[in-house]
Amino acid sequence: EPRSPCCCLAWALVIGTMNCLVFLLNLLLMFVIFTIVLLPTIVVVYFGFQCHSQVLHSSARYCKSILDDNSSSALIILGFVIMSPLLVLAMAIYCSLARRLQLLVCLQPYSLALYKGAPCCARGCSSQLKAWV
């Protein structure tokens, strides 16, 4: 049976807030995983740009004694080359973790705000709502 307009608005706010929190949790998880997996690329590209004379030309000791422009260019190229496989690896890790934690199943439809009763998953139709089989 349909809810009253005031109750419908309250439930819509609760469901919207919950969906936003689940979205932010997914975003935070994705950010952490991508940062950890792409850390080698970030470090290599950072040192390449840091020591190149045409870009930042740092006066650090390691830039003067170890890295010249050619080796800095090689670091920049290496960083961008290893980024592609690491992006694929990070996405695979995120997808398997999101599947294992069932994060996408936590998103609730707004029809729960319109009608009284148990959610669809509690009535036994959860097999139709699975994001992954």
Q: Got a strand count?
A: 0
Oligomer: single chain
What is the N-to-C order of secondary-structure elements (H for helix, E for strand)? HHHHH
The share of residues in helices is: 55-70%
Share of β-strand residues: under 5%
Terminal CA distance:
32 Å
- Tell me, what's the shape? elongated
> What structural category arises from helix and sheet content?
mainly alpha
Average pLDDT for all residues: 82
Low-pLDDT residue spans: 120-127, 129-133
Largest sheet: none
DSSP helix count? 5
Characterise the protein shown here.
It is a single chain. The protein has 5 helices and no strands. With 133 residues, the protein is mostly helical. It has a domain at 29-116. α1 packs across α4 (69-101) and α2 packs antiparallel against α4.
Task: Offer a concise description of the structure.
This is TMM88 protein. The protein is mainly α and 133 residues long. It is built from 5 helices and no strands.
